[in-house]
Specification:
It is a single chain. The chain is of the alpha+beta class and about 160 residues long. About 45% of the residues lie in helices and about 15% in strands. It has one domain (about 30-145): Glutaredoxin. It has six helices and four strands, in the order H-H-E-H-E-H-E-E-H-H.
């Protein structure tokens, strides 16, 4: 009998003293969101060439199951002043989102912006985006990387 009472008391103590999950551990559990966007002009020939590639790229990302990790933004030249401040709020202080020409393809990861300068193909865009999301082309835990090095014969 005594033992049952002590167990119930310790359970009561642990449930009463249990604190809510700290914010830093919540950040680790949630998936990181990458904002991918293009700033374009309808009159621009390069932008018109990019339209079917961009559409296929978005469909490929969704089919890879990355819809929850990616947010796509398409900003037309006439809407630039209205829509850029909302995206600017995602950046850390020294970084700024700007377009020097059309089309401008960008991504925002962890408060910093990077611009795409590679080939305007579906595969090129996919590799550029998945590099930071940790899906398919990289990332992983330290143990997986160590195992990979051992199998390749590279030791550090």
């Amino acid at each position: 009998m005594k033992r049952a009472r002590t167990i119930s008391r310790t359970r009561a103590r642990t449930t009463k003293s249990a604190s809510p999950t700290p914010p830093h551990s919540l950040r680790r559990k949630t998936k990181k969101v990458v904002h991918v966007g293009k700033i374009y002009a309808t009159w621009c020939g390069h932008c018109q060439e990019l339209m079917p590639v961009w559409k296929e790229f978005k469909n490929k990302m969704m089919s890879m199951g990355m819809g929850g990790r990616l947010q796509f933004h398409e900003i037309e030249q006439s809407q630039e002043m209205a829509k850029l401040p909302a995206l600017q709020s995602l950046l850390f202080e020294p970084a700024t989102l700007k377009s020097d020409g059309y089309p401008t393809i960008f991504k925002i990861v962890r408060g910093s912006v990077s611009y795409y300068n590679g080939p305007r193909t579906v595969d090129g865009l996919t590799q550029w985006v998945t590099k930071d999301t940790g899906n398919q082309t990289g990332g992983g835990t330290r143990r997986r990387r160590q195992r990979r090095r051992r199998t390749l014969g590279v030791l550090r």
